[in-house]
Specification:
The structure holds two protein chains of two kinds. By secondary structure, chain A is of the alpha/beta class. Chain A is built from twelve helices and 13 strands. The chains are: A alpha/beta, B mainly alpha.
Chain lengths: 294, 280
């Protein structure tokens, strides 16, 4: 579903949540929606789904989300960030969704099982009695089973364990190429593997709108941590820009270019001067291009 | 895809789980029972001195108690429905599916109204049955039916007002306060309080009577009294004035029709607000 937004604005009282947003995203695109807390990500998702009033023009698959919300809702599936603790049982919720959108409950059960939920065990359990992670799995299963043209996912893996996240990534990869998806997330590993386009918001405005590769190349930072071997000299680490931490660990935050330059030098030193080293993604993606900031 | 009726029924089932989990129907049932038990006990005590004055008198006293209780229960059950669902994220989940705002609004109204009315119907059947079984007093089926019909109309009035409140007031605490103010206003502005206001403000009598007739609680009260004790002492001056002009049948029609109309108007205003505004 093609997404077109022109001059989109939304205020909550005096707070400007979205200001003059313009986007044109092709059908089949996998979009990563990023930005700091309060940047307007959730508001944008809700506007696109027709849940909020707004100024400006919005078209999703050629539909006006406010005026044609029901028609749009039949073609999209949504995983909210927080799964509500409803009193209804899992089976009851499934029956309701089956009634509303003709969902096949057997198909839903298969997705749920694949995500690690034992359908027969939880069917008669109230959503309130499930853990946050289990509710999240159920909502992900509901969304995937809908086989929607547009998948809107707001932090879908925030409460999932590692194994389930891997399963989710695989399922996401297996979605038809025609499925458009919007993934709102802070996790770099999700952004890197699952999206091909990034929209970054800050204070309700678009700060970046372009290919994921271009965005991640400059803004996705990593942390390199090394631990010196006993008795090894630390001066060379100091020269490479590392700072000393606790328990013999040194660390440095790098962008991709710096990381690729540093790793061979660290590997060469690994056999005599280093006892250990890690490279990990920084948890959050920075909004600003670090090179511009410098 | 779901038809309108199937959508409403599916959403109603979902909402019924929420209401039943809160044990709200049990609380409502206990309150009705406590009121009925209190009045039956009082009537039985009175009967030891004066002779039992009849199931009809117990029912009349019960109906008077209901005039205070029903608006409060209906406002409490409905005034925070939409704003709570919004805060808990239930609306965001549901409206991610093809759920129409009007369908959801109708479904939750149906559930709340039904769960307020069902215990009332049960207790209204149980009350005469108990007095018949213990004292052999004949069951006043006519007055029983009148009380149930007028009670249902009154419940509908305040269910409609409560739903409108929950659609207009985003904050749950504020909605509860507004609900209490509506209740206080409605029960205060019956007859004697209205006369006091009239005297204080030197209002024209016709204006005061018109205001009285606008209050659904007053209408319901007159409809109930006119079926049992159509005297000045019971009616109060405004009620007596209206009774003289409308007659007992007219008061019954007024007590049924106006609360239904007022509740429906309020319900429609709330529905329009809910459909037009932000859904989450």
């Amino acid at each position: 579903m093609r997404i077109e937004v022109r001059a989109l604005s939304r205020r909550f009282g005096k707070v400007v949540a979205l200001a003059d947003i313009a986007l044109a995203l092709p059908a089949g695109c996998r979009i990563g929606l990023v930005g700091p807390n309060g940047s307007g990500k959730s508001t944008l998702l809700r506007v696109l789904m027709g849940l909020l009033e707004h100024e400006g023009e919005v078209r999703v698959g050629g539909l006006d989300p406010r005026r044609q919300r029901l028609e749009l809702a039949r073609r999209l599936a949504y995983v909210p960030q927080i799964a509500p603790a409803l009193a209804a049982t899992v089976a009851e919720l499934a029956r309701v969704v089956e009634t509303l959108r003709g969902l096949d409950v057997a198909g839903l059960a298969a997705y749920a099982e694949a995500l690690g939920l034992h359908w027969t065990a939880i069917a008669d359990v109230s959503l309130r009695a499930l853990s946050g992670g289990m509710r999240q799995k159920l909502l992900v299963a509901l969304a995937l089973a809908a086989r929607a043209e547009l998948l809107v996912l707001d932090e879908p893996t925030a409460s999932l364990d590692v194994a389930t996240r891997e399963t989710f990534f695989r399922m996401f990869d297996e979605l038809p190429a025609t499925t458009t998806s919007i993934l709102c997330s802070h996790r770099l590993d999700e952004m890197r593997h699952l999206v091909d386009h990034v929209v970054c918001l800050e204070e309700g405005r678009v700060r970046f709108d372009g290919p994921a590769e271009a965005y991640l190349a400059t803004r996705a930072l990593s942390v390199i941590e090394v631990r010196l071997a006993a008795g090894a000299d630390s001066a060379w680490l100091d020269e490479l820009g590392f700072t000393a931490g606790h328990a013999g660990w040194w660390r440095r935050t790098v962008d991709r270019t710096e990381k690729l330059a540093l790793l061979p030098r660290l590997a060469a030193a690994g056999d005599c001067r280093l006892a250990d080293f890690n490279v990990r993604d920084l948890e959050s993606i920075v909004v600003e291009d670090p090179r511009e900031a410098r | 895809m779901a038809g309108r009726r199937a959508e409403i029924l599916a959403l109603a089932r979902l909402d019924a789980h929420e209401v039943l989990r809160s044990h709200w129907p049990v609380v409502v049932g206990l309150l009705y029972t406590a009121l009925a038990a209190l009045l039956t006990f009082a009537a039985l005590r009175e009967s030891t001195v004066l002779g039992f004055t009849g199931t009809g008198r117990v029912l009349l006293a019960f109906a008077h108690g209901l005039l205070l209780l029903l608006p409060l229960l209906a406002l409490s059950a409905t005034g925070q429905t939409l704003n709570r669902a919004r805060e808990e994220g239930a609306l965001e989940l549901l409206f991610g599916h093809p759920v129409s705002p009007g369908g959801y609004y109708a479904a939750v109204t149906l559930v709340r109204f039904g769960l307020l009315l069902a215990p009332l119907a049960l207790i209204l059947l149980a009350l005469p049955a108990i007095t018949w079984a213990t004292l052999g007093d004949p069951v006043p089926w006519g007055y029983l039916g009148r009380t149930l019909a007028v009670g249902a109309a009154l419940l509908w009035t305040f269910t409609g007002i409560g739903m409108a409140l929950s659609a207009h007031v985003a904050n749950q605490a504020r909605a509860a306060i507004f609900g209490l103010l509506v209740w206080a206003g409605a029960v205060a502005l019956v007859d004697f309080a209205l006369i006091a206001v009239m005297l204080q403000w030197r209002l024209h009598a016709g204006t005061a009577f018109f205001l009285a007739a606008l209050n659904p609680v007053q209408c319901a009260r007159l409809a109930l009294i006119s079926g049992q004790d159509p005297e000045l002492a019971a009616f109060g001056p405004v009620g007596f004035f209206l009774a003289q002009r409308l007659g007992a049948r007219g008061l019954l029609v007024l007590g049924l029709v106006w609360p239904l109309v007022a509740g429906t108007l309020a319900w429609l205003v709330g529905r329009a607000r809910f459909r037009r505004g932000d859904l989450v």
